[in-house]
Amino acid sequence: MLLGFLVCQFAWLPLSLSSPNACLSHPTFREPVNTDIDVLCGTDRMEIKVLLCPVYFGGYNESLMAMNAQYTKEECKGSPDWTINPPVLKFNFFITEQAVSVCSNKIKIIEEVGSGFFSDFSSVQSINISGIINSLDPSVGIITYRKEQLYRFSCRYPLHYLVNNTEMSVSGVSLAVKDSNGSFISTLSLRLYSDSSYKSMMQFPDGGVKLKTRIFVEVKATNLTERYNVLLDRCYITTLPYPIHREYFDLFVGCTRDGQTVMGENGLQQRARFSFEAFRFVQNQNMTQSTYYLHCATRLCDRSVCASLVQNCSRTLRRRRDAQETSMSDVATVSSGPIRTRVDDDYPVELEVAVPFNKNGTVLGVAIAAVVVSLLYITLLAITKSTL
Q1: pLDDT at res. 84
Q2: What is the pLDDT of residues 186-203, one digit of tens each?
Q3: What is residue 293's predicted lDDT score, i.e. its pLDDT?
Q4: Omega prior to 86 cis, within 30 of 0
Q5: How far is residue 152 from each of residues 48, 50, 67, 128, 155, measured CA to CA in Å?
Q6: What DSSP string runs through 204-247?
Q7: How many helices (H) and strands (E) does the chain have?
């Protein structure tokens, strides 16, 4: 019994000695409370801060705290910051599937009926990233007097917002889809055509195409099982090749679309189609050419429920359904190459006359010819009179 007590005391001793003196007199050197954790849901990463002095008060230190009990992984442990007041233990990770899962954080897709800005959508998805920061009890005996410390955190992002963090390329994008049989990778591609039969690829000459030229767009998935269809949430134009830019023009978002955009197939097959007319940005009015890029936020939906997800633009008849977590994939953005539009309607008309036309020279020539004819007439008249 005495041996167990001494072991327990020696186990506590290193923690007491390693605790910085800053905590001993700090007002946060107390029992943990719910406000001891601060979570920042950033644009590209999540940052968690935990007050450090309550951790020491509970008999732990920074080396004994880790996300989701992943104590053997250094990337899952926090970094103490004693330079600020109060001292904190910082955790952070990027919002990517690999970074989120390396410390066993959970990703959950929540599907809801659209509201507010997304009221035209029969379904809008959000993604919830959550986890726990656990304490590891260093006691070597079979009992302990320490309370376990748990800090729960979570961030919720709209999937449309996560377009920022989706890996993109001009030619296509790989989109991971979870299935009951495992997972597979489907490749999405975006192509532009010049005809409604989608057979002739769109060619952009150096001078660009004329304004109001109709451009046909197809987003297609390959290596895809028959269970899934392609669904376009939003397609828009930016002046730069990046899908996130403060200057953009929406071709369509849900049921709201530009007057020159014609929707074809969407959510009904493993491809989606629509068309729009070539235009120019006002900022290019002093240029001979307007260049922009097309981006489409794309999802894969389960065929059994995809029809109910397709936007019904009659608000009173819009179909609604309960939230599901397995019928939709994550969002991905596919982008086109540069679309070049001629600012002027036609090329300059070339002159058909090879020799330049000189108006003054012509008038002079006609005048000389008239004088010559007049002199000949007078001469002939004089000869006629002398003969008579």
Answers
A1: 92
A2: 678 899 999 999 999 999
A3: 92
A4: yes
A5: 10, 11, 10, 13, 11
A6: --TT-BPTT-EEEEEEEEES--TTEEEEEEEEEEESSSSS--SS
A7: 6, 19
